[in-house]
Specification:
Distance between the termini: 24 Å
Shape: globular
Order of helices and strands: HHEEEEHHEH
Strand content: 25-35%
Helix content: 25-40%
Length: 115
């Protein structure tokens, strides 16, 4: 099972990957939205913002998200680490229910290029 430090490192790596991505992906990641990522097996939630093509983690809480972010992710720590490492395809994990992504319809359309 991935640790909280490994999950935080994976989010930092994902942020770096988004910042260095091509223009189509950067455009989708260029949204300015609140973001939460609930790591189900650790029962911890990272909260922050997706802004300027980066993920900025602002806080970490025990339990599920305290507030409803505009973009909400939920998965296990192992799945987060595997996705960022390129070992797990996000679209397949989302389609199979291993990863949950909730957002407004317009945001989902923009985020589809990240999938």
């Amino acid at each position: 099972m991935a640790t909280m430090a490994e999950c935080r490192s994976a989010l930092d790596t994902l942020s770096d990957n988004l910042a260095g991505a091509d223009s189509d992906v950067r455009g989708a990641a260029g949204l300015d939205r609140s973001l939460s990522c609930h790591i189900k097996d650790l029962d911890v939630t990272f909260t922050g913002r997706l802004e300027n093509g980066r993920i900025r983690v602002l806080d970490t809480y025990d339990g599920p998200p305290r507030e409803k972010a505009e973009i909400r992710l939920a998965m296990t720590g192992d799945d987060l680490v595997a996705m960022v490492a390129g070992e797990l395809n996000f679209a397949k994990a989302w389609a199979s229910g291993r990863v949950r992504l909730d957002a407004g319809f317009r945001d989902l359309l923009k985020l589809k290029s990240l999938l």
